[in-house]
Write a sequence for this structure.
């Protein structure tokens, strides 16, 4: 019994020492906190059992508040979020596949477009040489693809160039910028007719297209336009007789006072009118 009593006495002594240490800490905290320490001062007056009871009350309160802040729906929210992530991942995979398919389709269409451009250029190139020779029997003309004349390089091509000769000597091939006005007109007509051959239209309007041409070139142009008029309508203005000889209908535009007047006339009247204008 004595031994047990000694043990209990020792434990009480230890508790008292622990309580003393706590009181010292409380004193220290009061000193640090100043006015806030007044709240702690109230606990200082409590004995050990009262402090233990108050401590249990505070711990219970803390546990209750902690439970109140716990989101009980978190597991369901997690599952929903997981489903959303899986759905987004699936959509991403699907969009990636569609992007790859679209990119491949665009590549195929781009290649088809480039091939069509190359084919059209080859056709225009062929017909340009044909029509140029019709207008200049002793000459030769061709179209080249950009500066490098490389039809395979569609993307970097910024235009076409013309190489023409008005005689059979290929060494005298000239670029468009060094040609005379009449020679440029011949090149323009050959180019227009070559495009028309590839992609025909039904109506053309030429304003004094023969003004800079010599008599031979005017005749060649008139013959070519007459032939093309079987499938298209040509309206031309001219002060030269060659086109008038080939015309199906002629109209004279003249001034009456301060107004212009359009009158249909026959070919002979038109030729007479033009001759008068040339002699003036």
């Amino acid at each position: 019994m004595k031994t047990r009593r000694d043990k209990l006495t020792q434990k009480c002594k230890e508790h008292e020492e622990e309580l003393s240490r706590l009181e010292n800490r409380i004193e220290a905290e009061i000193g640090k906190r100043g006015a806030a320490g007044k709240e702690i001062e109230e606990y200082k007056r409590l004995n050990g059992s009262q402090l233990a009871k108050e401590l249990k009350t505070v711990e219970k309160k803390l546990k209750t508040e902690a439970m109140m802040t716990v989101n009980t729906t978190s597991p369901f929210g997690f599952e929903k979020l997981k489903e959303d992530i899986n759905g987004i991942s699936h959509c991403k995979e699907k969009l990636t596949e569609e992007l790859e398919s679209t990119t491949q389709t665009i590549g195929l269409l781009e290649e088809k477009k480039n091939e069509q451009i190359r084919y059209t250029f080859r056709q225009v190139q062929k017909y340009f040489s044909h029509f140029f020779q019709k207008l200049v029997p002793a000459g030769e003309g061709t179209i080249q693809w950009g500066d490098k004349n490389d039809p395979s390089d569609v993307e970097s091509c910024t235009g076409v160039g013309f190489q023409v000769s008005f005689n059979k000597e290929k060494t005298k091939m000239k670029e468009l910028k060094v040609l005379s006005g009449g020679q440029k007109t011949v090149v323009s007509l050959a180019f227009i007719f070559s495009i028309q051959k590839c992609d025909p239209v039904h109506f053309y309007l030429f304003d004094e297209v023969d003004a800079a041409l010599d008599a031979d070139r005017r005749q060649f142009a008139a013959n070519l336009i007459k032939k093309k008029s079987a499938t298209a309508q040509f309206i031309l203005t001219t002060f030269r007789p060659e086109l008038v000889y080939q015309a199906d209908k002629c109209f004279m535009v003249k001034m009456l006072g301060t107004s212009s007047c359009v009158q249909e006339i026959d070919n002979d009247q038109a030729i007479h009118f033009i001759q008068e204008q040339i002699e003036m």
